[in-house]
Amino acid sequence: MPIAFIRPVSASIVNCELTHLAREPIDIQVARWQHEQYAARLVAHGCSVFSLPSADDLPDAVFIEDIAVVLDEIAVITQPGAVTRRAEIDGVMDALGKFRQLACITLPGTLDGGDVLKVGQTLYVGLSQRTNAPGIRLLASILAPFGYSVQGVPVQGCLHLKSAVTQVAENALLINREWLDWQIFKKSQLIDVHPNESNGANALLLPDGAVIYPSAFSENRSSLEQLGIRVDVVDVSELAKAEGGVTCCSLVFKEMFSELQPGKLNQR
Ligand code: CIR
């Protein structure tokens, strides 16, 4: 059974990092409800969901994807590009250490999990405002012994690589070509976001083949469904105000072994 780590919406989410959006009021109760619905979809699609301890003093803690890159063989704890997010590391490290051998990205390297798109044995990594070249080089050297290759992808105009491109089926990517050099991905089938839904390239492909996708982007949803992709929509409008998408609210990985101590993490 796949495992999904999530982390509760913190009381201080209103103070989240923002790069491309203006600050708007966030209704925390609604954000928490939306996050619950999101978690319920993970359960519905066969994931064993574990909720990490809440961290009300860490505004962006809900966006757990940025803190680790979890592969079958190893989990790499990142060094978030935003200094305010580095305090999120300890909690994620404690929890992931029960499931994987760990390695860490260290300064001067920085890397956000939202910049890492794994397609087969290749990890495409956004060279962004959050992830730098030393971070990408360190990731490549950590993963080389396991047979993974790492390719940097400059992104501009968006927060992370996965704001611009995500996998939606075995050989298909949902993409906004304006934010990166799309030719890097030309071996895959490319599904373009609708011009009115340019923020809609972030979709979460689950191990059962279904895609969790924001309800806000109905044109893109239709494009995916027309290609036979099973789409399960969630309303993440409050989390989107914090510049979060659907990939960033979980870390989904294969269960390889577990020394989980009951009570430390809260299984749903
Ligand atoms: C941040 O700027 O770090 C958060 N407010 C949003 C992070 C979203 N992460 C992601 O899409 N992977």
Labels describing this entry:
single chain, 268 residues, alpha/beta, four-stranded mixed beta sheet, three-stranded mixed beta sheet, 6 helices, binds citrulline
Description of the structure:
It is a single chain. The chain has 268 residues and is of the alpha/beta class. It is built from 6 helices and 16 strands. The chain has a 4-stranded mixed beta sheet with strand order 15-1-2-16, with helices on one face. Strands 3-4-5 form a 3-stranded mixed beta sheet, with helices on one face. A 3-stranded mixed beta sheet has the order 6-7-8, with helices on one face. The longest helix has 17 residues. The protein is globular, with a radius of gyration of 17 Å. The two termini are 14 Å apart. Bound molecules: citrulline. The site of citrulline (CIR) has 16 residues, from loops.
Would you report the number of β strands? 16
Radius of gyration: 17 Å
Describe the largest sheet: 4 strands, mixed
Helix and strand content put the structural class at: alpha/beta
Low-pLDDT runs: none
The total of helices stands at: 6
Overall pLDDT:
96
End-to-end distance, in Å? 14 Å
Small molecules in complex: citrulline
- Principal-axes geometry comes out as globular
Strand content: 15-25%
Biggest sheet strand order reads 15-1-2-16
Helix content: 10-25%
Q: What's the order of the H and E elements?
A: EHEEEHEEEHEHEEEEEHEHEE
